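#structure-requests
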Amino acid sequence: MSRSTNHRRGIMAEYAALAYLTCKGYRLVAMRYKTKLGEIDLIMRRGRTLTFVEVKARSNHADAAHAIHSKNQSRVMQAAQLFLTQHPTYQDYEVRFDALLIAWYRWPHHLVHAFGSPS
């Protein structure tokens, strides 16, 4: 599969994840938040909880979950720390790291507290 096809599928997966989480009562704070330390696919808020969401799309949920490795998690957590530093509005919010696993033609699988928390 070409790089541009993978990129398009990744964007489609992020929009599918956004729609799914919006239906669950989450509100978008930022999408594809880029820093020099890494990128966060979605930053969502529900109540006083700020959720940093890593979206992975693969042919099945198990492969998608396996694609969220420790290096990937570390980048997301570092980028989240930078986001929190730059946006003091959220300093009193509970912070969480979730994963949204997309397997085409299946319901998304939302992993709450999928990995660590910022230091």
